[in-house]
Amino acid sequence: MAKPWATFGVDLHLEPTGGGVRRGLTDALREAVRTGRLAPGTRLPSSRALAADLGIARNTVADAYADLVAEGWLTARQGSATRVSDRTVVPPTGAPSRPRAPGRPTHNLVPGTPDLASFPRAQWLKAARRALATAPYQALDYGDPRGRVELRTALAGYLSRARGVRADPEHILVCAGFSHGLRLLGAVLRARGARTVAVESYGLDVHWNLLAAAGLRTVPLPFDERGTDPGELTDQDAVLLTPAHQFPMGGTLHRDRRAAVVEWARRTGGLVVEDDYDGEFRYDRQPVGALQGLDPDHVVHAGTASKSLAPGLRLGWLVLPPGLMEEVLTAKGGIDSCGSLDQLTLAEFLVSGAYDRHVRAARLRYRRRRDALVAELARRAPRVHATGIAAGLHVVLRLPPGTEQSALRAAAWQGLAVHGLHRYQHPEATVERRDALVVGYGTPPDHAWSTALEALCAVLPE
């Protein structure tokens, strides 16, 4: 009698019934597909593997697969895996006609967060104790709306040394993350009479929505193999870029285009907002200096601790051109919106060298994950190409044309949270359609990475 369980990465429960093993297996597989237990696009094990798991003959499995392929329940191509075909799932008779409630994903590969389990709790606690022990009692009062001077001074030194930013503590404003900083800049631009902000063809809709809420129209710039093309910058009032590591495509803005953006700002008086998205994490290339270093009078450098430490800290910063501080303070409302103790702790973390040590350790850990991902793709999904892998915490997996949506459906049924590239395309962008997945390999904790990678490979076309 066949065993009812097969374990090819995830448990598969089959109850062969009726006369004969082949017929029972065929009926069980058909029912699993018909009711949606096996989702469209799901890759089935080889006939050899499934036969070994169920304790039956390999020819029996091969014949069952062939029957279901002929009926249209499965698809198979020479040299490729057998998969569940795309077809409507028919609920069993008497089943309630309500949508399947989405559960919490088993594996999270959504980009945008680091491995939160690796937050340096012990080192952060030490820094907090030292900061609190030495803080003046005035630090517990309503603070400077620019942020604690200790943090602004520490940031000026770190950003100058590590990112090539020309910063003075008097020109740094501490904010509650990049979105908060962008909201402030949007308010300033609108108060100045600005109407449009140029943005990248690929990016985050939350940022475009924040600018729209400020009364600003976002206009996407062209995008090609050298990144965002500033050639169409004309009478826009500002431009928002991720030049060090473009999100989500992963490239670095070409040096000629960096110079062109700065030249545009000087010529027109426009403002460049540089989102230094995960700029600390690089693997196969030399560090790319901040765009702000080319012209501090026209570029706002925006950074956060969200990717290097944790987004829950809600600590970010704007390095502002000298003439912009008062307007941003007015938009901020004249108050310090970030907790003084967390600011003091981060300042101590930076000055003591703990921040540098943490970033170096995280860089090695994320590089190992990226290397494992690239190696597994080469072995199991050679038609999928990984791009944007020289830096950052995510990778773009280029898929065969027309397969993005089927890959996303298969991922959802596997309990895998992952985003398609189309999600990040500006609605007005006129770029060539690219089918791809944007995979955040920094998100899972260390102990869950291997199983998350296994789940990812299971939904990719071979």
Polypeptide structure, described:
There is one protein chain. The protein is of the alpha/beta class and 462 residues long. The chain has 13 helices and 19 strands. A 7-stranded mixed sheet has the order 6-14-13-12-11-7-8, with helices on both faces. Strands 15-16-19-18 form a 4-stranded antiparallel sheet, covered by helices on one side. It has a two-stranded antiparallel ribbon with strand order 1-2. Helix 6 packs parallel to helix 7 (205-213). It is elongated.
Keywords:
four-stranded antiparallel beta sheet
Task: Describe the SSE topology.
Blueprint (H helix, E strand, L loop, with lengths): L4 E3 L3 E3 L7 H14 L12 H8 L3 H14 L2 E2 L7 E2 L22 E2 L12 H14 L14 H15 L8 E4 L2 H14 L4 E5 L4 H9 L3 E5 L1 E2 L2 E2 L9 E4 L13 H14 L2 E5 L23 E6 L11 E4 L5 H8 L7 H12 L2 H27 L4 E3 L7 E4 L5 H10 L2 E2 L1 E2 L15 E4 L6 H14 L3
Parallel strand pairs: 5-17, 7-8, 7-11, 11-12, 12-13
Antiparallel strand pairs: 1-2, 3-4, 6-14, 9-10, 13-14, 15-16, 16-19, 18-19
Q: State Rg.
A: 26 Å
Strand content: 5-15%
Main pleated-sheet profile:
7 strands, mixed
CA-based shape: elongated
Class per helix and strand makeup: alpha/beta
Beta strands, count: 19
Write a compact overview of the structure shown.
This protein is an alpha/beta fold and 462 residues long. It is 37% helix and 14% strand. The model is unreliable at 95-101 (pLDDT under 50).
